[in-house]
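Q: what does this look like with magnesium ion bound?
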Amino acid sequence: MHRARVILQASNKIGNSERFASWLLNKPQAAAMTVQANRLKSSTAAEPFLNGSSSAYVETMYNAWLTDPNSVHASWDAFFRNATNGAQPGVAYTPPPNLAPYSKNEVPLTSLVPASGGMPSIAAGSPINEKIIDDHLAVQAIIRSYQSRGHLVARLDPLGISTGDPASSGDWHGDWHGGLRAFASEAVIRQHVRFDEADMDRVFKLPSTTFIGEKEKALPLREILNRLEEAYCNNIGIEFMFINSLEQCNWIRQRMEPPNVTKMSPDQKRLILARLTRSTGFENFLAKKWSSEKRFGLEGCEILIPAMKQVIDTSTRLGVESIIMGMPHRGRLNVLANVCRKPLHQLFTQFAGLEAEDDGSGDVKYHLGTYIERLNRVTNKNIRLAVCANPSHLEAVDPVVQGKTRAEQFYRGDNEGKKVMSILLHGDAAFAGQGVVFETMHLSDLPAYTTHGTVHIVVNNQIGFTTDPRHSRSSAYCTDVARVVNAPIFHVNGDSPEAVMHVCNVAAEWRATFHKDVVIDIVSYRRNGHNEVDEPMFTQPLMYQKIRKTKPVLEIYADRLIAEGVVTAEEVKDVKDKYEKICEDAYNQAKQETHIKYKDWLDSPWSGFFEGKDPLKMSPTGVVEETLVHIGKRFSSPPPNAAEFEIHKGLLRILKARMEMVENRTVDWALAEAMAFGSLLKEGIHVRLSGEDVERGTFSHRHHVLHHQKVDKATYCPLAHLYPDQAPYTVCNSSLSEYGVLGFEVGYSVTNPNALVLWEAQFGDFNNVAQCIIDQFISSGQAKWVRQSGIVLLQPHGMEGMGPEHSSARLERFLQMSADDPDYMPPESPDYEVRQLHDCNWVVANCSNPASLFHILRRQIALPFRKPLILMTPKSLLRHPECKSSFDDMRDGTAFKRLIPEEGPAADNAANVRKVAFCSGRVYYDLLKQRRDRGLEKDIAVVRLEQISPFPYDLIKAEIAKYPNAQLVWSQEEHKNMGAWSYVEPRFRTLLQNQKQISYNGRATAASPATGSKAAHTKELRNLLDEFCVL
Ligand SMILES: Cc1ncc(C[n+]2csc(CCOP(=O)(O)OP(=O)(O)O)c2C)c(N)n1
Ligand SMILES: [Mg+2]
């Protein structure tokens, strides 16, 4: 661990005995009286109200009194009389009469001084004295300092290597034990406050912001310091004082400060030992059987397994029934085996290199997910555990887990997250380095994204592959990212099992109480290299010398429990042997297996969805007109209480225009989308649309949420009020994140197939910020993990002169990742469409009219399986007068048209048509206008591919056959190395079988997706349209 701000030099080492001496030397000599009269010395020196700075004053008073006792105040007179009469030290002083009542802001001294216990810091009934107040304030400051800075000197590192002065550029030195540690507390925590040894027995009233006293209201300073050291500087370091809520800070103090909070019963200790035995035994068994296999073992942080189990036990005890987990490679197999209790033989078959029984390309064993329902033996409650499958891309699974958790909460009606929760595991380097962690954290408290608290556990082995923390992050801790959401952070020494368990209990309780994120940072080490075949001594020689000398935590803990008499050595061995036998039996069972099954590793089974379904039968997507009218009217109406609910005048105009369209049986883009959503909602399909500014729509066309112009937060969402028994509709503006939010929606989409989950990019151009989610989850998720998703990506796309970053959703990339073979044309069949959809990895479409949008969205649900849909969506077409559809194209009996043939004069005159231009999306309207303007409507046929991938070979073939004398072109507005050209060209070739050729009509190749110059844009467009008209 890299607590860079701890400034300590090894050369400062001082022993215990020297410690007090140095402490005393540092302080001003209190009460060093300089009163000339020697006999006064002893009594005055002992007077607590006198100190060094007052000695000159006392001297003046004394000299004045010697000259004339009446020249000084009566209280001085009494004091000097008592002192000269030999009063015992400390009792010469008599308080003066209290002439005035205490003002509002003054605290009577008696209230500061406890009536009993220890030596009072001053006699009761004395007036306020500056020193007393200072001392109490100092004690308060010390308490506060421990609370906020104690973690800096806590003994967190099992290797003891993290105490270096950053200035020494990381030499491993220092020793947290004994003198240096005490000195550390002094240097780091109490640096501005000095007390002497005599002060140690003085009793101080405890402020309400500490719970070290339990029932005691005051404690001697020595005890205060001891208890603070124990709570804050032992094996747990807590960061929580940045939390804005006093209630939450107190809650933590209450659980961490009282003495002995980490004490466990013998039963609890035995349970920890048993769990540690399994955790350690599992890795040992794998190491023994497959010594050269990569498994990213947990050795060095075996405590993770008992820790996770503790979080799960406590959370289930507090009402949680389902836990969704995301984790990286480290210790993953161990988690599946010992936390989820996945059958060991299934795990072991993954090492056997067997072929898979089912479809898919599969994934390496330390990426696979699982889903298990079982009885939690500790709480005797049934629990569901899922570990999400994840890619190598570290932390990418975080938002996916959150989306899945949120979805499960939603379907269960668990609005406060009491039944479903997530646990996220992190590596120290990835947690600090990967930006998606921050993006995910920022979803944690948003109304439409919160999962009501996540328990984050960091396997902090103080290294990332071969990189030291001091070179992999600038923050003091790898967990600092969690501070932004006010999550408490518990750093804990991984070799202190009981401290770890205590922290796990507190973290689970925190989540159950406040429903906010919390972090457990298990400071540990990595016993082997990054994987089992790596040599760590190449790069971390000193660290690994230390590791070689460090006993495994199981040994440390077992020895301790044996010494405590909690277990015997025989019992320890017995538990170990039993677990080894379990592993052996499973190993033998695994040897019998001939195939692996990817389905065994599914993290989100959709029970009941596939059963009894014809896998090639699609439900109709057309809708009866009455439904279209009903949804259209509701969507076009102001709120029912319109008299009180004042909406913007501009919106009233929009609603009026919508209503006119409904009356004319036409729809624009927004209305078609609303009708697709509304009709699905009517059918009981939950719809969720998320993304930046989606409620209004980036282009101000959607307006799904109407805002009262006079009342804050008063909104109305027409689509949520279409039918009394409709499914819920969620539309939510997201945080300004693509990676995090798209990941979240993917997780949401895999939870339940009966939902339409859509993510809209603000402009399609920004989807590449979420490239990892697109590549690792959406495009390849089903192939790797047999997990389907029907997520829809709405991607504003189109060359409209808006410059390089507001023009292209990079259609070409999605098409390039489509897995259909360009050289293979599937045989024609009546179920051609659905068969192709069944076999593809995703659908890529660029629709040109609202009816297509309506059908393709509904088709997502009409399919008997789920596929992601990548949909290019328009910008200017949202308001284009020709971009309208009739109810006739959406009614029952109609369906999605993968291809829209030419319907104008050219179609009636097919034999004479000289050119057929195939195109997709927005450019259609430019081509149409050009053809009209040039009077070429009979000569050029324009055919639209509404679905580009899977490639509609069957329909294209029929279109080509219609126009035997025409040359074929592909017209696109994107540059030649972009858009659909490189996808369609080889497929046309396959289709045409050298009988004919298709040529390219579009912009030239370019590095940037679009020009930033309006003039250049217009010129490029003119060129492509001119070329389109060349016959
Ligand atoms: C996004 C990403 N970048 C790089 C890698 C390559 N990589 C795999 S593990 C690893 C180190 C991870 O360190 P840490 O997060 O501390 O986990 P540990 O292996 O120490 O448990 C790296 C860089 C990756 N898997 N993902
Ligand atoms: Mg690490």
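Residues 330, 392-394, 427-430, 459, 461, 463-465, 526, 530 surround thiamine diphosphate (ligand 1) (CB under 6 Å). The CA atoms of residues 568 and 802 lie 76 Å apart.
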